[in-house]
Amino acid sequence: MHRGGVWRVRLPFGGGREQAGERPAIIIQDDAFIQTLPLVLIVPLTGEMAASRFAGTLVIQPDAQNGLTISSVALVFQTRGLDKRRFLGRLGVVDAQTLDQILTLLDRLTGR
Q1: Contacts (Cβ under 8 Å, ≥6 apart) of 68
Q2: How far, in Å, are 3, 63, 105 from residue 111 at the CA level?
Q3: Total structural domains in the chain?
Q4: Pairing mode, if any, of strands 5-11 and 21-27?
């Protein structure tokens, strides 16, 4: 597991508007903390393009590097910690520019 990795994950059902179920997600946590903590910070993705209307989202197109099969929306406003046991398999990795855009959105969402 490394920052920028795209993984298939299983998000638990919790009710409310949080994303749940199996879906791709992008790891945003620094590699040093991935090794030492039991949870990993992720940004869940959705194939519902209508979600791009929300602030704190980024549309990502599929390519050979990221392993996505459809256009997806990174739901940065739904960043969360996820237990490593919920990671099902690696799909690919996002390019540096996409990761930078995600982290910039996270900065904006947190007022940084």
Answers
A1: 6, 24, 45, 60, 61, 62, 91, 92
A2: 22, 31, 10
A3: 1
A4: antiparallel
> Average pLDDT by consecutive 10-residue portion of the chain (112 residues)?
97 78 96 96 97 97 97 97 97 98 97 91
The DSSP code sequence of the chain is: --TTEEEEEEEPP-STT---EEEEEEE-S-HHHHHH-SEEEEEEEES-GGGGGSSSEEEE---TTT--SS-EEEEGGG-EEEEGGGEEEEEEE--HHHHHHHHHHHHHHTT-
Identify the pLDDT of residue 40: 98
State the residue range of the domain holding 69: 5-109
Residue tagged 């990221």 (tokens): 66
Site of tokens 């949080």 = 18
Scan for tokens 């910039």, then name that residue: 104
CATH number at residue 83: 2.30.30.110
